[in-house]
Task: inverse folding
């Protein structure tokens, strides 16, 4: 049974006991307001839904409890992404608010502000992308769900928010002629095999750079994608692929296989001069390496790609948009969304289709042959 006592003019203290712990709260206003609040608390205590008030702030909860709790169970890159989002976008606005006092309107205002100009944490002009704003909401929802589960708060305020739909950034892509021009321009570049493999497979940058010779079957013309080379706090790091869809085996086109065999011949010749190399390649040797040995820094590859396309005078795209170019060309050739989705290893199949059904390996093989044929046609055109 709770109690009420006057603290001053129009100020009341209510007291209660829940699960053996005593609590108190100050209510300003009429005594009837204090009675109503106490009745609400006693009702929630009776049906097991009462959550005692806490003085912990959102920033303290996110940094000292939630991130610490989830860190052992997520990839380092995911952790870094969560931490960065909290530090740059959430805490500056909401971090000082007491966790139990955060309302849906507080979060809604944050999301609305982030959709406006001048909201970038890097100081650059322009708006945050809709994807980034949705990600901020995703982080808040996940964290506050855990707070509800731990009975720190009674409800998740982020669930009751929404994001105004905006037009997504439209990815730029190259057509087959631009691809041919780029590959012709880089044919003597050491990174040429990296570019070619990315264009002909649609693999992610980290997946291409993480390929080992043991992942490639030159006879069966397949590549097993099981790991990726990704930057973690500025350092290249080997990581398993992110999802079960990401772990996949894809067919390689005859043109790409021919190029990889040539690349292997060159690599063997390069290694002959190294006294410590007795057998090359071993299954664990990386397919694409620096001249002094060792894998590439993914960020270095992107920087070199940017410099190269500027020198070639081509439409400026980022390295990841080679992947989009691959998918766009397959789509234009009539390859269905399901096959493209599987080839790219999308975790969210809704990106390409609404209903997912498995495709046979030979269907994918036939699909990539179309890409090969189109490229060969462009080669013939340019040689005339």
Result:
């Amino acid at each position: 049974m709770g109690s009420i006592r006057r603290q001053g003019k129009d100020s009341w203290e209510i007291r209660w006991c829940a699960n053996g712990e005593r609590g108190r709260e100050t209510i300003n206003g009429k005594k009837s307001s204090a009675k109503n609040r106490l009745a609400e608390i006693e009702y929630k205590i009776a049906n097991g839904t009462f959550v005692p008030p806490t003085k912990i702030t959102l920033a303290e909860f996110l940094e000292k409890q939630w991130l610490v709790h989830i860190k052992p169970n997520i990839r380092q890159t995911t952790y870094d992404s969560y931490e960065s989002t909290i530090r740059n976008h959430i805490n500056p606005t909401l971090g000082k608010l007491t966790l139990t006092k955060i309302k849906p309107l507080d979060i809604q205002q944050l999301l609305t502000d982030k959709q406006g100009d001048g909201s970038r944490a890097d100081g650059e002009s322009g708006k945050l992308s809709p994807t980034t704003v949705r990600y901020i909401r995703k982080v808040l929802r996940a964290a506050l769900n855990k707070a509800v589960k731990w009975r720190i708060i009674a409800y998740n305020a982020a669930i009751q928010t929404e994001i105004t739909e905006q037009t997504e950034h439209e990815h730029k892509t190259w057509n087959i002629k631009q691809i041919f021009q780029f590959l012709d321009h880089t044919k003597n570049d050491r990174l040429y095999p990296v570019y070619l493999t990315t264009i002909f497979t649609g693999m992610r940058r980290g997946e291409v750079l993480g390929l080992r010779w043991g992942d490639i079957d030159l006879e069966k013309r397949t590549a097993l994608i099981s790991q990726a080379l990704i930057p973690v706090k500025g350092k290249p790091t080997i990581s398993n692929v992110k999802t079960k869809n990401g772990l996949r085996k894809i067919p390689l086109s005859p043109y790409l296989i021919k190029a990889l065999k040539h690349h292997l011949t060159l690599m063997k010749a390069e290694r002959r001069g190294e006294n410590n190399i007795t057998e090359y390649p071993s299954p664990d040797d990386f397919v694409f390496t620096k001249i002094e040995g060792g894998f590439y820094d993914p960020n270095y590859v992107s920087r070199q790609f940017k410099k190269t396309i500027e020198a070639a005078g081509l439409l400026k795209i980022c390295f990841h948009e080679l992947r989009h170019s691959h998918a766009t060309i397959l789509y234009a050739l009539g390859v269905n969304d399901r096959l493209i989705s599987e080839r790219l290893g999308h975790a969210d199949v809704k990106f390409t289709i609404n209903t997912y059904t498995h495709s046979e390996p030979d269907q994918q093989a036939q699909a990539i042959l179309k890409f090969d044929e189109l490229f060969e046609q462009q080669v013939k055109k340019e040689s005339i």
